[in-house]
Write a structure and sequence with these properties.
DNA-binding, 10 helices, flat, mainly alpha, homodimer
Chain lengths: 223, 223
DNA sequence: GACGGTAGGTCTACGGTGTAAACTTGTCAA
DNA sequence: TTGACAAGTTTACACCGTAGACCTACCGTC
């Protein structure tokens, strides 16, 4: 009579929570319907009542990431400053989940938080002087670049286990150190940086700067 | 008696050929040890004599792509023109295999053709005024962006089957057309371009331009 | 020329995956 | 009270990567 529903369980949001946790520290391949089901004390097939199939579940993961983007309020700063802030907000939301970042792209034009981001970005770009179509192409590529930036974060991308990580880095360093400095003077000289950039913050700052500077550049060329 | 070897078969290069063909028109998930073995009339386990495991095989695929990059000869043009050409050569090699492009990143610092590309890129960047370490970071991000550019090629990324492709596009268009033009004026206005850019060549040209312009931009900022 | 090592195949088997189809069961509306 | 329906269960299937033991034809060496 009281509308308690003790028999109904399996909150889809909680399932996405679990999936997020698993994917974050073991990679998306570790996300398994059986494992998820087990964590929620349920049969694997139960998940199909809430997600069409595994891809649908992963899409929900992507939506979750996009929902974490907090768009800065429009101000009266110049358009490129505002663009910089919006894009920074985007990577900030993704940074925590580097192995899942690429799930977001295909959801941007589907889920609400992504659409808000898209609209705002295009707004800024047209304010900067792009035609809507050019803004679409430039914006699309910028978002792709930033997703790639996060996906390939050379620090977070490594296995979470710190000793295995250090081992993997050592092996890569050794393989570069074995190269002939005569044949590859610059690669060997900057080997450490190539394998793993010095600072994560600098890495991301540079990434956003590159994108914004690129947009600035092509805008001038077109005129 | 004649030194013919009718019993030995299974040329690893041919296996990579097959894998490439399968991945190109059905996606990398369709590449299966069993399927590959079947195509070469061999037991799945036979492949393990030539590849440590599946990842090793995919790495060989990545190497194959990188080997197709034809670096332009150094000239006396300004550094940014040369950089543009090198990066264009890179995406040109990948364009034919958009679903495999991301296999290349992890092989660049391992296989010879990738190292040549890396060294040449850093050469140009230092000539432009970057320190070796900055060249390493900027170069790395540029390569990542370009790989993402190819990977997300909105035309080639679609399923190869043209009728299914047209269907998928139609569905996306419909979903965007259903949005409120009041809430998302720019997104709905540029819907077609967002879903699928007008010209592939323009898409790639813009991509490379963005990267090169970005590098130019951050270089000036640093001084 | 006999012979042992080895490279390149085969066979069998295991544990894991996503998911289709048919079933049970608890809940609420009529 | 009944009956529809949503949620979870059971069973089953086809497929995957790969470990381990085995065969077998070749090759260089004495």
């Amino acid at each position: 009579m009281i509308s308690k529903e003790p028999a109904r369980r399996l909150d889809p949001d909680k399932v996405v929570d679990s999936a997020l946790a698993i994917a974050d520290d073991e990679g998306p391949a570790a996300v398994t319907l059986r494992r998820l089901a087990g964590q929620h004390e349920v049969t694997p097939m139960a998940l199909y009542r809430h997600f069409k199939d595994k891809d649908d579940l992963l899409a929900a993961l992507g939506d979750r990431l996009l929902a974490d983007v907090v768009l800065p309020e429009p101000t009266d700063e110049p358009w490129d400053r505002q663009l910089h802030k919006v894009l920074t907000a985007f990577v900030t939301a993704l940074r925590g989940h580097p192995r899942l970042a690429d799930l977001t792209l295909m959801r941007i034009l589907v889920a609400e938080p992504g659409l808000a981001l898209a609209e705002r970005t295009m707004e800024i770009l047209t304010e900067g002087g792009f035609s809507p179509d050019d803004a679409a192409e430039v914006g699309r590529q910028s978002i792709c670049s930033l997703i790639a930036l996060v996906t390939n974060d050379p620090i977070a991308r490594e296995v979470s286990d710190p000793i295995a990580r250090e081992d993997s880095l050592r092996r890569k360093r050794a393989s570069l150190a074995a190269l002939s400095p005569r044949k590859y003077p610059l690669v060997t000289a900057a080997a450490d940086t190539l394998i793993c950039p010095t600072s994560t913050d600098r890495y991301y700052a540079l990434g956003v700067d590159l994108v914004v500077a690129g947009i600035h550049g092509v805008l001038k060329e077109e005129k």
